[in-house]
């Protein structure tokens, strides 16, 4: 099969030396543990920030609303069914922070939260150390061969995301006006 990335210089990764799931020759397990540690610290900080906000807002109207029978029933549901939501949030982009903050704010029992968090962090780290490093290595290899192609692909991606965002906003506005 030869070289996995057949480009000149230090970007060449021969099969056996390094693989597509390495960053600058750092082994997969090191990248995985680093990603796991980063997401674990970030998610924990968000959870504890939510707990702090809950404590700081204990004597506000929001706290009074959360003590109504209906709200208490919802909070109990979050405590019971929230852990799967915590785990599944790690398969999304942009929802993790909200879910972890809400888990802290609603005082999800820490042992349940931690169990769900560890599973979610393991999944997140696996996804980003495989798909993420492959994408980074692919982009580096493409940049070495054809920086213009990489720039065009990047601009196309940004344009596609902007188009999707504008379209979603217009749909929301149309639904609101209808």
TrEMBL record:
Keywords: Cell membrane, Membrane, Transmembrane, Transmembrane helix. It is found in: Cell membrane. Residues 20-133 form the VTT domain. InterPro entries: DedA_domain, VTT_dom. This is SNARE associated Golgi protein. Belongs to the DedA family. The keyword Membrane applies. It is a multi-pass membrane protein. It comes from the Bacteria.
């Amino acid at each position: 099969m030869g070289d996995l990335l057949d480009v000149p210089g230090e970007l060449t990764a021969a099969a056996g030396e390094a693989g597509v799931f390495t960053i600058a020759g750092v082994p997969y397990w090191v990248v995985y543990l680093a990603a796991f540690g980063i997401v674990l610290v970030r998610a924990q900080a968000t959870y504890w920030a939510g707990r702090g906000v809950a404590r700081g807002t204990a004597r506000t109207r929001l706290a009074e609303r959360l003590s109504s029978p209906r709200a208490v029933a919802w909070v109990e549901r979050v405590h019971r069914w929230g852990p799967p939501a915590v785990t599944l949030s790690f398969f999304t982009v942009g929802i993790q922070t909200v879910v972890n903050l809400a888990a802290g704010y609603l005082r999800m029992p820490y042992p349940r939260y931690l169990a769900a968090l560890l599973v979610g962090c393991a999944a997140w780290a696996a996804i980003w150390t495989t798909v993420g490093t492959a994408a980074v290595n692919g982009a580096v290899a493409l940049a070495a061969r054809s920086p213009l192609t990489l720039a065009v692909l990047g601009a196309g991606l940004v344009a596609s995301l902007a188009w999707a965002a504008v379209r979603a906003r217009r749909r929301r506005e149309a639904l609101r006006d209808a």
